[in-house]
Design a protein that fits this description.
The protein is 27% helix and 22% strand. The protein is an alpha+beta fold and 235 residues long. α1 crosses α2 and α1 crosses α4.
């Protein structure tokens, strides 16, 4: 699959007659007392992404909401296309808001909406480790994995998580993919960690929701500035 084909999914025109308001909200499961996601899930609160619509740079809140809906419609189309092409059971895209990751779109079972970005969670969460170390992680067999892992679904057997870079080299978000089959991503690493990642980066670089928002101004991370960003860590 070519990078051009993935970009085509993102840049295909949006039907202005379609209503994408439903993409602004999703249900996350009831969380444990410590804020973690339980293995056995019950519907919890409704998470509303409209809280991140701001009124800056001469753009009104209404215009920025329109930009957010455009972003969600295109990214949602991408995650569903990836599912159709790879049969991966869960795929989600998160964007960084200060010291937390926020899930914007996903395909699969409901899951936690936010992840803290702090060294406290470095040994607990692959999502946190990926954004702090600025490199992708691949766990081919979750059952035999000995390192940090945040288990939100007992059926997950393999996981591939990748950072999304802004043009200045800072991590603006991540995407996470999970499957119930061991070694599922062995033959998909290049496609997902390289081509899909690059397409998302190109798309986000000049999308008006990103460029007209104060939410994505990221100062250099002291904890990750010396990290090697080129290598996929396979465990």
């Amino acid at each position: 699959m070519r990078l051009f084909d993935i970009l085509g999914v993102l840049y295909e025109p949006i039907n202005v007659l379609d209503n994408h308001e439903h993409l602004l909200t999703y249900i996350e499961p009831k969380l444990n007392d410590d804020g973690t996601c339980p293995i056995f899930k019950e519907p919890g609160r409704t998470y509303n992404l409209e809280q991140y619509v701001d009124d800056v740079h001469g753009i009104t809140a209404a215009e920025q909401k329109h930009n957010l809906l455009d972003l969600l419609a295109r990214l949602n189309r991408l995650v569903r296309w990836i599912h159709a092409k790879t049969d991966v059971l869960w795929f989600g895209i998160y964007l960084r808001h200060g010291d937390k990751l926020v899930k914007y779109v996903y395909n699969g079972e409901m899951s936690k909406a936010e992840f803290d970005i702090s060294e406290e969670y470095l040994e607990k969460s692959i999502n946190t480790r990926v954004i702090m170390e600025k490199r992708p992680y691949y766990i081919a067999d979750v059952d035999s994995h000995k390192g940090p892992y945040y288990r939100c679904d007992a059926k997950v057997k393999s996981e591939l998580c990748c950072p999304i870079f802004a043009p200045d080299g800072q991590v603006i978000g991540i995407f996470d993919s999970e499957d119930h089959r061991k070694n599922f991503f062995d033959d998909k690493i290049d496609f997902i960690s390289m081509k899909v990642r690059r397409a998302i980066e190109i798309f986000l670089e000049d999308h008006p929701y990103i460029t007209h928002s104060n939410n994505f101004t990221i100062e250099e991370d002291n904890f990750s500035k010396d990290m090697d960003t080129s290598n996929l860590l396979v465990e």
